[in-house]
Amino acid sequence: MGLDRYHIAILGELQRDARLSNAELSARIGLSTAPTWRRVRWLEEQGFITGYRAEIDRRKVGLGVLAFVRVDADRNNGASTKPLEDAIRAQPEVISCHYISGAGTFELQVLATDLDAFSRFTIDVLLNLPNVKDVHTSFSLGEVKAGALTPLAHLDHKAVAQLK
Predict the structure, then answer these.
(1) Which residues, other chains included, contact 48 with Cβ-Cβ below 8 Å and sequence gap of 6+?
(2) H or E stretch including 74?
(3) What's the Cα-to-Cα distance from 106 to each of 31, 72, 82, 131, 133, rounded to whole Å?
């Protein structure tokens, strides 16, 4: 993997605050600015850092409904699910999509302004996507934890071992 303790520290700090200047980041990880900048660029180029974005409170922008939708495909093979994958990616209301084990093919997280809007989205869009057999929905009644940082503690042990 090629990560050392500075890479791990950079990942941790940028997860907590992606708006840090290079000088602030350097001070926090205990490395001068030039090597810090080179390491950040390397992490981006290698795909460890995939982007920077603002976290938005969905309720403040009028998206009061968060639904978890299991989509059952009619056929589960590459040729059949590819058009469905492409159609799901094209829906801005779908904020995440995962292949799942067990019952169903995909698990989606869908945002909507209210239950009526979600119902229209399900009937007009989801049920009409290619290869969809059925959908099953559960609604979030409240968030306990969201927008969590990616855990990095398992990397610390490897980085310490690398330095020895």
Answers:
(1) 3, 7, 11
(2) none
(3) 43, 7, 12, 12, 12
Taken as a whole, the chain contains a residue count of 164
- Return mean pLDDT, the chain: 92
Give CA–CA dist 99/122, Å, rounded.
Answer: 19
By the 10 Å C-beta count (0-12 exposed, 13-18 middle, 19+ buried), 7 is classed as: buried
pLDDT tens for 80-104 read: 889 999 999 999 999 999 999 887 7
Of 95, 25, 94, nearest to 55 (Cα)?
95
pLDDT digits (tens, 9 = 90+) for 106-157: 999 999 999 999 999 999 999 999 999 999 999 999 999 988 888 998 887 6
d(CA 61, CA 139): 18
